[in-house]
């Protein structure tokens, strides 16, 4: 085991091209001046092919809450569809440190963090922090979605998803 508690053999196998693994990038955003919040995640396989992508509007919340919501949704989707082993990537250093139990959990996200930790338990999942530049798909989804929300200027909530060349946009 290394410093983060991850089995080094698992990590070596995970990055071996013969082993199939998945990567889930997550992003959350909040534009308080526009009263818009969104979360997004995208899943790719080890060949970098897009497997699934989803973005949706959420009730106005902080950027941290949006990040945690995106991470939770992405993890839940991957676990429910057995997309394992999995690398979860987030551009939120706070989220990574809280999951690793290196930092205290802010009360506003404590329920979601408990849910995330429960999902992570006994799963082949590695959590990585990446810079925003490495999170292009999720970041692009968020940006496009916030523009779409702003243009709609309605109280309805939108969901947009992509799966194997099939796109859907839903008003709720």
From TrEMBL:
Domain RNase H type-1: 25-143
SUPFAM superfamilies on file: Ribonuclease H-like (SSF53098)
A Pfam family it matches: RVT_3
Record GO terms (molecular function): nucleic acid binding; RNA-DNA hybrid ribonuclease activity
Protein name: RNase H type-1 domain-containing protein
Source organism (scientific name): Solanum pinnatisectum
Higher taxonomy: Eukaryota, Viridiplantae, Streptophyta, Embryophyta, Tracheophyta
């Amino acid at each position: 085991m290394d410093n983060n508690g991850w089995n080094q053999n698992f990590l070596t196998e995970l990055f071996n091209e013969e082993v199939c693994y998945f990567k889930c990038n997550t992003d959350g955003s909040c534009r308080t001046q526009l009263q818009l919040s969104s979360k997004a995640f995208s899943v790719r396989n080890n060949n970098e092919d897009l497997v699934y992508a989803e973005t949706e509007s959420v009730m106005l919340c902080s950027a941290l809450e949006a990040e945690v919501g995106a991470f939770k949704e992405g993890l839940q989707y991957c676990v429910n569809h057995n997309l394992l082993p999995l690398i979860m990537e987030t551009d939120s250093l706070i989220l990574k440190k809280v999951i690793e139990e290196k930092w205290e959990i802010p009360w506003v996200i404590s329920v979601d963090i408990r849910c995330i930790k429960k999902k992570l338990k006994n799963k082949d999942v590695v959590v990585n922090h990446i810079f925003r530049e490495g999170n292009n798909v999720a970041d692009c989804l968020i940006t496009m979605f916030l523009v779409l929300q702003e243009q709609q200027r309605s109280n309805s909530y939108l969901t947009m998803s992509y799966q194997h060349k099939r796109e859907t946009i839903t008003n709720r």
